[in-house]
User: Fold these one by one.
Assistant:
Number 1:
Amino acid sequence: MTTYTIISPTTGKPVQELHLADIFETDVIIEKANRAFQSWRLVSPGDRATLLRRFAAIVEEHNEELAQLEVLNSGHTIGNARWEAGNVANVLNYYSAAPERLFGRQIPVPNGIDITFKEPLGVIGIIVPWNFPMPIAGWGFGPALAAGNTVVLKPAEVTPLTAIRLGELALEAGIPEGVFNVIPGKGSIVGERFVTHPAVRKIVFTGSTEVGKHIMQGCANQVKRLTLELGGKSANVIFDDADLEKAAAGAPGAVFDNAGQDCCARSRILVQRSVFDRFMELFEVAVKAFRVEDPALDTAEMGPLITAAHLARVKEYVPSDAPIAFQGSVPAGDGFWFPPTVLMPKSTEDRAYREEVFGPVVSVMAFEDEADAIRLANDSEFGLSGSIWSRDIGRAVRVSRGIEAGNLSVNSNSSVRYWTPFGGYKQSGLGRELGPDALDAFTETKNVFFDTQI
Ligand code: TAP
């Protein structure tokens, strides 16, 4: 029997020992989900909607418990963790309106009637990373269940606790046995089996671009449907006509939130040369005021990194000769802490400027004009998110159309709203989650022609 010891990122101490599923247990659960699909797809739209609303209500009731669990397991700040649990309830509520609205079309044809139906796919395999265990799971299972699919969910090996609890809450809400299944285990075993098992009809994968490409290759063997949400290296573009105070005050949160372990982190700040020095003065004040402390405190703005191994990886991006402009602070004691770090690289070839660090490290670079800003922002294999700061509406429109990324904000750093689409350009992903169209990714369109001439 394989087990995994969950370690608190805040203290570095063991929290809980957990059994990890092997391939045989995974198969048993996938087959159970496949059997449950035969009845779940037939539950009337109104009843499925009611069950999802009940699931949402129970998640809402357990918001504090789920949030505390995430602080313990993942070192998220309590404020973020409450938002994350709330996001699961919001996503369930939003998609609970979908079952009665899964409309097909009636298309005019000669000599008959043509109708399209939106039909569920079957068992959906959802593979989740460790950085946002609750929301990323919910973005998959909310619309998947609403469309009449059943779900097997594999949380990241290091952060399974909230997913396991959500599985229990689904049963409490009356979601039938076998419809929503959580399988803690290794990616190389459980995740891999989702890809190879023929009863799993679609994979929703969020994680690294490297593993995403491997999964995409595996899915090709069965022409398995696939949604990918992968890495990012997003730009925060600040023009000389921006509200500099506001842009600088928001910039630490835009990259250091969740200790930078955020695919949408604005980890490259591009500032127009004429306001570069003034921005850096304001930014330094904001970075030094950013509260890095015990994530259980209500005042915490940033906690530790997820594991000792990840801390070691992040440290490699800041060697002793790194071009550090300034750094924030970390609390004393154990745990996997790294301070907010601002770099001023000379070249766009600098590793920390180019690669996704997935830690609290940001690189700042000057640009000359609008065209230069767009060129620099697009000089990346990724294209997930980003911000544009300018008071000139025409410029904001031009630059937001010019940047190749799926989720941009103007004079703001917010990327995610559950009712708007989310996903990446280029190597940041494939397909979109959330918003009104997510159901399309969990259904097939069936076209049926009825001959009325006989
Ligand atoms: P990965 O190492 O790619 O792991 C993600 C998930 O895939 C984990 O559950 C992992 O399981 C599993 N996995 C690993 N190898 C697998 C395989 N061969 N087959 C199937 N599943 C496998 O990423 P991570 O380090 O957890 O997360 C960080 C990355 O996720 C970053 O690059 C970040 O940008 C990206 N991310 C993207 C987004 C969006 S929305 N675009 C959101 C969050 C994170 P184990 O835990 O057992 O290894």
Note: Residues 78-96 form the longest helix (19 residues).
Number 2:
Amino acid sequence: METQQQLDNFQARIDAGEKIEPKDWMPDRYRQQIIRMGSQHAHSEIVGMLPEGNWIGRAPSLKRKLVLLAKVQDEAGHGLYLYSAIETLGVSRADLIDQYLYGSAKYSSIFNYPTLSYADVCVIGWLVDGAAIVNQTKLAQSSYGPYSRANIRICREESFHKKQGYEMVAKLASGTPAQRKMVQDAVNRFWWPTLMMFGPSDSDSPNSAELIKWKVKLNTNDELRQHFIDRTVMEAEAVNITLPDPDLKFNQETGHWDYGDIPWDEFWDVVQGNGVMNRERMKARREAHENGAWVRKAAQAYARKKKLSREQAS
Ligand code: BYC
């Protein structure tokens, strides 16, 4: 039973900018919200390896293969930082993964789109990692200590990912007509799905008010989306890429770029599991998990053996 006094004390700590640590008292709803959002974030990092992993063997040079391989490995690491952070709330990694592979836990909509050309990998680095940085730089200031610290580490690596993606986009955009066409086509396909990564507009976001009150999220979905658009318009202009939105227009009064209607029906369709790649992504993740059962079993047996020999030695 949570008392009003406990809830008030908790809110006072949040308002004073204190971090909440695993052993601190917290409302059950706060715990559940971080588990929901943080585990969705972890699953996204893991499933996010698939679209780009698809191109490791086909990247155009040894250098590009190495860069892509390193980036995809980083994403696995991000998933592991996040699972570790969320486990501090008393939920096991095995349960979280179970909810994702066989239950109703979500992962980011963006990874349900196919990567049709090598330029898609470049554009994912620029736009998708760019959007992730805008979102995660704020999550790095989140009130839950372990989640905020995981995001600090993630952001350092994501900024490298974004730079390498943008560099490749710039290279293709100043290349042959075929390369230019390929990269523009990738931007045309990824622009709107990237904007959807920030979540539904504020009027349709049931979790935002509570998460902002508790400083888990520092900004609303629309605020972060606007920030991303404002900085990406300039980056696109600098490499002569057209963003596929005829309504993009600088608004002198607000100081921001106005943009066209986001196709929200498509977003909800993807979130409900009906995107082009949803089924294939889940199948690949389930197979990887089931094929890896023997590794987990061997690791657990090894840990038990080490524990036993430590106990015998002491
Ligand atoms: N996709 O009330 P709302 C990466 C769901 S990977 C799917 O606004 P909230 C990378 C939402 O869960 C990092 N579902 O929710 C990796 C909620 O449903 P439930 C990706 C979405 O939590 C490899 C419902 O819609 N980043 O960078 O306040 C290669 C209502 O939404 C989405 C993260 O995971 C979506 N896009 O805000 C390259 C960031 N949006 O759970 C790159 C961490 C919303 O109530 N997450 N939903 O059933 C967040 O920041 C927040 O959870 C969101 C949503 C802004 C996404």
Note: The two ends are 42 Å apart (CA to CA).
